[in-house]
Write a structure and sequence with these properties.
Number of helices: 1
Shape: rod-shaped
CATH architecture of the largest domain: Sandwich
Number of domains: 4
CATH class of the largest domain: Mainly Beta
Low-confidence stretches: none
Structural class: mainly beta
CATH topology of the largest domain: Chondroitinase Ac, Chain A, domain 3
Helix content: under 10%
Strand content: over 45%
Mean pLDDT: 91
Distance between the termini: 133 Å
Largest sheet: 6 strands, antiparallel
Number of strands: 38
């Protein structure tokens, strides 16, 4: 019998977050019920999560409902009022049903290097739930597509991400719960050959040490920047080359603070860039003349030794640094509307070597006559440009004077253009 204190009725196993009833009785020092005891008492427990925290005795008894939200193997409830104290029996508090998952923090990773992840299954009060189900795992790079098994509320797995990018997130998918990890960086391993790209569009293959450590490359298609737009506008004004629309790509590298890599890459190493193209989009561009161009000082400059794979529909080039790249090629004019002949007049004294006929359709025929109407030069040309060395059909330099040129095209809708050239020796 309790003397000069309170007694708590026996409590059996409970569930976190669910109410359960308890009864507390106050006794005097002789073990008699204090039926005139009508005071407030303070409720506490070993988990410090009991609610409510006060109880109002009536005629020496308090009977009410309480909730404990922390799961534990054993806790005890304490009550104190007016110097009287009581203690319950130890009892277990079980976790509730699974309400969510919690990822362990994922740090920066390297592309194609396996790393471990961990998760806890939680009830609504963040207690580890004894869950043993299977969940699906995916990520924002589409590298991870697998399932994993929880065992007693804990999941550990090893995964690999094959694409370098910032703010990667892994997601666990459960029939009623979807939870994501913290965003983290996936960097390239700069000590090894690496490749990144946009499927079916562009691929960048980097030699070891092409980029410094702790940087990740990013490819942006058709970036809208003033200097790119200006350079493209002037490039398209040319008569012999034309950019292939939809093939401009900007390749950059950033560190984990989003600072762009300005210099320090490509030292003693190289990368290869493959840009894909659609044959149906070529239009007047001759496929075998496609080249990779790089933006330098606000103008498009051809990268030497570009290689066209007409079977794989790819143009490949070797590059020594990042930047903005595109495809461009020689055009085959469809008519004579853009034909220009220069320099006119032709003056060897200022360094002129040839007279150029630029903007010629395929299979153009060029005939040049002197002012008397004598044919002095004739040529059949397949390219968009023909260079006249200002010699006649016999290899003799023509004299100063005015010459007439006639350019014609073949076919049922054959075209003709006539013009004059001045030679001043």
């Amino acid at each position: 019998m309790v003397q000069d204190g309170t007694s708590v009725a026996t409590i059996f196993t409970q569930t976190a977050g669910k109410e359960f009833k308890i009864t507390v009785t106050g006794y005097d020092r002789f073990g008699n019920l204090i039926d005139e005891f009508n005071e407030f008492g303070e409720l506490t427990d070993l988990t410090a999560t009991i609610s409510p925290s006060t109880a109002k005795f009536t005629c020496g008894v308090w009977a009410g409902s309480v909730t404990i939200t922390k799961a534990t193997i054993a806790t005890t409830i304490f009550i104190a009022s007016q110097g009287k104290r009581g203690t319950s029996n130890p009892f277990q508090v079980l976790h509730g049903d699974v309400a969510g998952f919690e990822f362990g923090t994922i740090a920066t990773q390297l592309v194609r290097k396996p790393f471990g992840i961990s998760m806890r299954a939680l009830d609504e009060f963040d207690n580890t739930a004894d869950y043993n189900g299977t969940v699906s795992l995916t990520d924002t790079t589409d590298s991870i597509k697998t399932t994993a098994q929880f065992r007693h509320g804990i999941l550990t797995a090893t995964v690999t991400i094959t694409k370098s990018m910032p703010d990667v997130v892994i997601t666990v998918d459960h029939p009623i719960i979807i939870q994501s990890s913290n965003p983290f960086f996936v960097l390239i391993d700069h000590t090894k050959e690496e490749k990144i790209g946009i499927p079916q569009e562009i691929e960048l293959r980097m030699d070891a040490y092409f980029l410094p450590a702790d940087y990740y490359p990013v490819i942006t298609k058709e970036p809208h920047e003033v200097q790119i737009n200006i350079a493209s506008f002037y490039h398209d004004q040319g008569l012999t080359t034309k950019r292939l629309f939809g093939t401009i790509y900007k390749i950059e590298a950033f560190d984990e603070q989003e600072n762009p890599l300005i210099q320090g890459y490509g030292t003693g190493s190289f990368a290869f860039i493959d840009i894909s193209y659609d044959k149906q989009a070529l239009g007047s561009i001759k496929e075998d003349t496609l080249r990779v161009y790089k933006l330098r000082n606000n103008r498009w400059v051809e990268i030497p030794d570009s290689v066209v794979d007409v079977i794989g529909n790819i143009v490949r080039a070797k590059i020594d640094g990042l930047g903005v790249f595109m495809l461009s090629g020689a055009i085959t004019p469809q008519d004579l509307s853009i034909l220009v002949v220069y320099p006119n007049p032709f003056k060897p004294s200022r360094g002129d070597k040839c007279i150029y006929f630029e903007g010629l359709p395929a299979n153009s025929r060029i005939r040049i006559y002197d002012i008397s109407g004598h044919l002095i030069k004739e040529a059949q040309n397949q390219e968009a440009i023909w260079e006249w060395d200002v010699q006649d059909n016999y290899g003799k330099l023509v004299d100063s004077g005015i010459y007439i040129y006639i350019v014609t095209t073949e076919g049922e809708n054959g075209l003709k253009k006539i013009g004059k050239i001045a030679v001043i020796r």
